Backbone:
């Protein structure tokens, strides 16, 4: 079973406008509430691909109740720990024309006893299970929290995926996560230098592999993606053609697609293709991509590969 953890989930209030005029009254042409957080997004796209998962994390207050209700309505299995105080955050996503503006709120405080309750749930995982740790940590948690969770699972046969930034990610590397998924900017920050060429990208990815990551999947937006797998092989895919209308959840979709592809065939090249297709399909959609959307982009990627043989 795949378990995703979202430490700081949110209700995303999405407003679509023709144009945004700062300092003036703006009227949205369309609004939507999405049940967000990186781990939840991964679970959602896995569901769309027919792969079951359980969304773990925390909920607080009336917004947390709405989050749990919304996930159930979407058909996602979740086991969110209620917090004693605060409320699940509400983020505002403004989409005006091709521009996107995000206002992300702080999350509720997670007390030690609530984190212990999550650890107890993770203690039940064993061989054959996958754990996805994705997204930012609330200010109340130390930056090495992901590393501490992975340390606790060492030797249990659990395959771990970490999609985080900075120290949150670095703290997890000594525990040899199955997969990490930085984007170009995050990779450059981790390596302390620019990675403009494929050679530099590969060099930075190998540095993270040397520090413990088994597979490094780098999302490159309009430039496609690169996978350095645990055998040392480099897989490079260029972006499929399509109109980008949404960047929210594209990276999470790539993670979900990669996991779904790996579980289906245990082949890194195929997993990379399906991950790239899922990420691009979400970028081409108003929300998270459907299975039909992903399969359509996957066919395009496979046709591009055949044309270069």
Residues:
């Amino acid at each position: 079973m795949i378990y995703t953890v979202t430490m700081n989930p949110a209700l995303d209030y999405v407003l679509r406008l023709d144009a945004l005029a700062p300092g003036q009254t703006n009227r949205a042409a369309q609004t939507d509430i999405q049940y967000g957080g990186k781990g939840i997004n991964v679970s959602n796209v896995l569901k769309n691909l027919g792969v079951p998962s359980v969304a773990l994390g925390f909920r607080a207050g009336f917004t947390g109740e709405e989050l749990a209700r919304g996930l159930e309505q979407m058909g996602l299995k979740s086991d969110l720990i209620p917090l004693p105080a605060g409320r699940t955050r509400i983020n505002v996503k403004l989409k005006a024309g091709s521009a996107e503006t995000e206002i992300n709120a702080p999350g509720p405080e997670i007390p030690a006893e609530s984190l212990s309750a999550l650890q107890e749930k993770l203690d039940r995982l064993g061989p054959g299970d996958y754990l996805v740790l994705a997204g930012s940590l609330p200010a109340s948690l130390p930056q090495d929290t992901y590393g501490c969770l992975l340390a606790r699972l060492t030797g249990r046969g659990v395959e771990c995926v970490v999609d985080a930034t900075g120290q949150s990610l670095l703290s997890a590397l000594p525990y040899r996560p199955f997969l990490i998924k930085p984007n170009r900017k995050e990779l450059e920050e981790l390596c302390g230098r620019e990675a403009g060429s494929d050679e530099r990208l590969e060099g930075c990815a190998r540095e993270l592999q040397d520090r413990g990551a088994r597979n490094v999947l780098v999302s490159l937006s309009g430039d496609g993606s690169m996978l350095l797998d645990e055998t040392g092989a480099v897989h490079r895919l260029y972006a499929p053609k399509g109109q980008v209308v949404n960047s929210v959840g594209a990276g999470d979709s790539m993670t979900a697609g990669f996991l779904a592809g790996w579980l289906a065939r245990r082949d890194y090249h195929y997993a990379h293709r399906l991950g790239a297709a899922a990420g691009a399909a979400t970028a081409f959609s108003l929300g998270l991509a459907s299975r039909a959307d992903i399969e359509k982009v996957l066919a395009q990627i496979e046709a591009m590969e055949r044309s270069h043989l």
